[in-house]
Amino acid sequence: VLRDGRTLAIKVQYPGVARSIDSDVTNVGALIRMTGLLPKGLDLAPYLAEARQQLHDETDYLREAAQLQRFGELLADQPQFTVPGLHDDLTTGQVLAMDFVPGKSIETAADAPQDTRDRIARDLIALTLAELFDFNAMQTDPNFANYRWQADTGRIVLLDFGAARDIAPDVAARYLALIRAGLADDPAALGECAEAIGFIGPATQATHRSQIIAMMRDVFAALTAPQIDFADQTLSRRLQRQGIALAEDGFIPPPLPIDVLLLQRKFGGIFLLAARLGASVDVMALLRPYLTPETAES
Questions:
Q1: I need a surface site. Which of 20, 148, 198, 251 has the fewest CB within 10 A?
Q2: What are the phi and psi torsion angles at 178 (to 5°)?
Q3: pLDDT by residue (tens digit) across 69-94?
Q4: Span 146-175, mean pLDDT?
């Protein structure tokens, strides 16, 4: 669509999608339970309720339009990112009108020079930290399709803000405390922070608690490296094996708050994208501004 010499992108919701959410989620929940793959004792109901609410949010295009504008303003002074401009006079609850911003699939950057791939990953990790600790608002869906890359300008195009949501300041504060405890390699503090976030609970067996804390210490040890080579899957594979072993030993994670679940999804997605790009990033340099001087020096 052309308007005043500008190309528009129009997102139109398929009729009936929003009305089918509740029944679709109920059916998915029934199928999951039928597989018998759920850990014994895990209550699926709260997760289904949150999934249902998120899908309703994502089908409200007026809500997405407001988030699109919000992130456009938040990132207006960061030229490494481009957020499409909104055409609010053409936007409704089922139609979203915005500027069309050209770009290639973010995965095509995997063929770019190493320094370009490193910069893209660094910028996205920095954005994730800013969303958590500066904006207290995050686009929580790290689907690769939500990122485009402009080879000529080097900019990253950010799309699809239907999953954007506020992050409670107390949740961000708990994550910051966890990072400080991890970088200080303080197992006791790590356990307290992990429990405050919800990774473990008072009923978690002592052996499982120790294993989870040991896994966290591995992650934070890797973070202190001058550069993290995301193409090296040694640590992630080891953590995967340890996670499977925990589940097989009967570990049942406590019900996680939705903010934590979505944050973990975002972290995991950005990690996978950095790995797909084969990037190498000094993550500590990005974390350091959020830490106290004492923690940064340690």
A1: 20
A2: -65, -45
A3: 999 999 999 999 999 999 999 999 99
A4: 95
